[in-house]
Design goal:
With 255 residues, the chain is of the alpha/beta class. The chain has helices spanning 31-48, 56-77, 83-93, 100-116, 124-133, 148-157, 170-173, 180-190, 204-213, 243-247; strands spanning 11-12, 14-17, 137-142, 166-169, 197-201, 217-221, 235-237, 251-252. The two termini are 22 Å apart.
């Protein structure tokens, strides 16, 4: 990363982070296998609650088809969907009524295998805390049909939630990155101008192109150093813990 003379350093007020494979690493995932494991966890939870259930195979197929159908519709419509109403409706068709707390726990059980496969880089929480101390506003901007409460719980378990007080999830906005609505919602949340905001993500199209269109500073997390489209980013790093080197080019937090 080339250094910029301190007298001409531009101002940086906010950092927006993609979640999956940026802040939290999931690695290579077999989506079908992960869904099957999550559905099994949810099935076991419903059994623990004492509900009468169909066979595991029928339960799994019903939920897989429901999620798959809504995912296809979301792509066709250019929108995002929210998985909690889908899972709850599937339960209701089986005559199962869940309290709001049980609905959240059901979603967490579905997500848990993915959580267990994830890792974070050592020192991440301390690095985020140092950004706060420098006067930067931090936020998460994530494409997800998983309920925000579930991802918040994951962040809490990783000790990151306090450092990321602002979180913009596509299931709540109704659109996915690179749709402008996601980035505009994030800019509104952090209260910064695009040119004062850095966006870091691992996907050139969704993260970098979308943020570039809004006039943000962009950083691609590219562990292999071979990701196609990397040239579209202003900076490229291999690890999230390399981000402070990028920030040396900026006057932080208006200080």
């Amino acid at each position: 990363v080339a250094m910029i003379d301190s007298a001409t350093q531009p101002e940086l007020r906010a950092i927006l982070f993609d979640l999956g494979d940026t802040l939290i690493d999931f690695g290579t995932i077999d989506n079908n296998a992960m869904f099957r494991l999550g559905a099994k966890e949810a099935y076991t939870y419903l059994q623990e609650l004492g509900h009468r259930l169909p066979s595991w195979r029928r339960y799994h197929l019903r939920h897989w088809l429901a999620i798959r159908w809504h995912a296809i519709l979301a792509v066709v419509r250019g929108r995002e969907f929210h998985s909690m109403p889908v899972l709850v409706h599937c339960c209701e068709t089986l005559g199962i009524q869940l309290s709001p707390e049980e609905q959240l726990e059901l979603c967490w059980r579905f997500y848990q295998p993915l959580r267990e496969s994830s890792t974070v880089e050592p020192g991440l929480a301390d690095m985020l805390a140092s950004f706060h101390e420098a006067g930067l506003v931090l936020a998460v901007v994530s494409n997800t049909f998983v309920p925000g409460e579930t991802l918040d719980r994951h962040l809490r378990e990783e000790g990151l939630i306090d450092q990321l007080p602002l979180r913009v999830y596509s299931c709540d906005v109704g659109y996915r990155k690179p749709h402008p609505a996601m980035f505009r919602e994030a800019l509104k949340a952090v209260g910064a101008q695009p040119e004062q905001t850095l966006f870091i993500g691992d996907t050139p199209k969704a993260d970098i192109v979308g943020a570039n269109r809004q006039g943000m500073i962009t950083v691609l997390k590219d562990p292999s150093g071979q990701r196609k489209g990397a040239e579209k980013a202003d900076y490229r790093i291999k690890r999230i813990m390399d981000l402070p080197e990028v920030l040396k080019n900026y006057k932080l937090g208006g200080n």
